């Protein structure tokens, strides 16, 4: 049987997107590992499944490159938001995810004419049990030095709902990944702190409303961008005075997004705004667990996005020079 898959990305975080009415149509773990293998059309970071929902306009499932399932994906949700809104002919929709039903909407282009969508990121919790994470007898970990991790970097643990450990750097090079990679690799193997692993992000302050975020994503490794990580980083930066704006520009290796942070006492309303780019449409033949690419049809949207990358690089050069 031949099925159609879209190749999409949000901030360079690349996925295959597949719409089906049958939740168990294929072995998603096996298929995702094959799709994400870098020897197959450059691979991807995961598979986005668009499914029927009884409580929303559609349901999204996210299968990571290693076959594990994520509870949410902000960059992926933007791509699903576009797919669902265009399919329904609407400007907004509600998407069911593993932990919550989230509102999404079409936005004005973030750069030139790039298709742009805003998505709700929720729920938010600083309880270590929500990640889950264990550190001594603490129930929360906010902007705190953990000597076992680093004697100079303060870390915050937060779930949105994916688990994140956010470190704020006051010094260091954007190009130096060694410490982050060592820590993230440790926390995503057998350890006493995060039994299910955790996404580890390092935040570099740039301006009062601008940060740079690099993320080592659980189940993937270093990614061009992680939507929930960028949103969590904007929240943590806002709470700790790193930025003082409600709308934070977040640069990342794959481009940039806008993150809106609104606080009502202990409640947080978070919105992630960024591109939803379609790069290709693939026809793939699937016979049980045997797969073959049959045809590929590229769009012109990536050309638009490359201009955005050029803009980001120039802005970063100006900010860090």
TrEMBL record:
One cellular-component annotation, GO: cytosol
Residues noted as binding substrate in the record, renumbered to the chain: 13, 64, 74-75, 162, 199, 217-218, 227-228
Gene Ontology molecular-function annotations: diaminopimelate epimerase activity
GO biological process terms, semicolon-separated: lysine biosynthetic process via diaminopimelate
Pfam families: DAP_epimerase
Site description Could be important to modulate the pK values of the two catalytic cysteine residues, residues in chain: 164, 217
Main location as per UniProt: cytoplasm
The organism's place on the tree of life at top rank: Bacteria
Gene3D superfamilies: Diaminopimelate Epimerase, Chain A, domain 1
Amino-acid biosynthesis in keyword set: yes
InterPro entries: DAP_epimerase_AS (IPR018510), DAP_epimerase_DapF (IPR001653)
UniProt keyword terms in alphabetical order: Amino-acid biosynthesis, Cytoplasm, Isomerase, Lysine biosynthesis
PANTHER family in alphabetical order: DIAMINOPIMELATE EPIMERASE, DIAMINOPIMELATE EPIMERASE, CHLOROPLASTIC
Reported function: Catalyzes the stereoinversion of LL-2,6-diaminopimelate (L,L-DAP) to meso-diaminopimelate (meso-DAP), a precursor of L-lysine and an essential component of the bacterial peptidoglycan.
Binding partners and assembly: Homodimer.
NCBIfam families: DapF
Protein name, entry field: Diaminopimelate epimerase
Upper lineage: Bacteria, Bacillati, Bacillota, Bacilli, Bacillales
